[in-house]
Amino acid sequence: MASSRNSKEMETLREHLAKHQLKLTRQRELILSAFLRQEHITAEAMYHQLAKTDPHLGLATIYRTLNLFCDAGLAQARHFGSQTQYDNVSHKGHHDHLICTGCGKIVEFENCDIERLQEEVAARNGFTIQTHRLELYGLCSRCRH
Amino acid sequence: MASSRNSKEMETLREHLAKHQLKLTRQRELILSAFLRQEHITAEAMYHQLAKTDPHLGLATIYRTLNLFCDAGLAQARHFGSQTQYDNVSHKGHHDHLICTGCGKIVEFENCDIERLQEEVAARNGFTIQTHRLELYGLCSRCRH
DNA sequence: GTATCTTTGAGACGGCTTATCAATTTCAAT
DNA sequence: ATTGAAATTGATAAGCCGTCTCAAAGATAC
Predict the structure, then answer these.
(1) Which runs of E-coded beta strand occur in A43-139?
(2) Is the CB of A43 under 7 A from strand C?
(3) d(CA B69, CA B66)
(4) What does the H/E/C string look like for B54-105?
(5) CB contact under 8 A, A114 and B117
């Protein structure tokens, strides 16, 4: 907890809260610190994970808080299957996803060349990129047969 | 309708049906011909669209049929927001999006170099790409100031 | 034509997410 | 430290989307 209390993500959250007249609560701190340990997680999964240490934390609060993180730019929601995955944006640069439409397997990757081209495209259109999302859908080697 | 009755997509569907002991129905023909006119559509949108000409066509039938098209390789489901988009696989020109987080402006673009790199990444991981989604979020020139 | 097996349509159902609301907590101003 | 206005929480109801159920209708092979 102490580790996340002074992290740059916590600072980002504080700024976002201040800017929008929102308040820093015990739950928001707790959920942030749990979130920062994950690369991506669903609300349900986090609910079960936190139930061990805080049995009264409500599922609605987790949904609300993860959506708050999205607003603050700390998380990014991604819909897969019937659920929403909340991706940790701060994890080692940004990683993208290869998603198998057959079995749902997800492979993460990073590609600097693609990122550089994205910057070029954005610049050509007068944009400065804050974040991006790239998902490649296809069949993995196993499902292709 | 006559135009789709002999299309190659219709032939693909016929083959799939034959191979799985399924039947060609009036509804399946109707939904296919409507689907082929779209780049991508939701079941709900198609329901409203077809309600004009065929008020008794059930929503469940549309879902079932669009999923059938996915099995047959004619369509591909993609989760977007809270809904499922059914993409027309035969439509090739895929475009990506630049989205301004300030004003919501959306600019469409295409970039062959990025697409080529995507193929490389996929191949390196044993995937064959069916489709992709690339969204760049940032500030447009106007909102940056 | 008829038997058989699939499909349809209408609504019930179930999973995931959001809305509701009284009670509690935060935080800025005393 | 106390107070008071405003935000947040937790429990649960409600909502939305997509699938399942099942009796009636339709398609295909014989």
Answers:
(1) 75-80, 83-88, 96-100, 106-109, 128-139
(2) yes
(3) 5
(4) CCCCCHHHHHHHHHHHHHHCCEEEEEECCEEEEEECCCCCCCEEEEECCCCC
(5) yes
Query: Please, which residues bridge with residue A78 across strands?
Result: A85
The CA–C1' separation of A68 and C30, in angstroms, is 32
Closest residue to D27 (CA to C1') is B23
Which nucleotide lies at the shortest CA–C1' distance from A58?
A: D10
**Residues in chain B, total:** 145
State whether A127 and B121 contact (CB < 8 Å): no
Do residues B39 and B86 lie in contact, with contact meaning Cβ atoms separated by under 8 Å? no
- The answer to whether B58 CB sits below 7 Å from nucleic acid chain C is yes
Query: Do residues A80 and A71 touch, judged by C-beta distance below 8 A?
Result: no
Q: How many residues does chain A have?
A: 145
Average pLDDT per run of 10 along chain A, which is 145 residues long?
72 95 96 94 96 94 97 89 89 78 81 93 93 87 83
- Shortest CA–C1' contact from A21: which nucleotide? D7
Considering the entire predicted model, what is its pTM?
A: 0.81
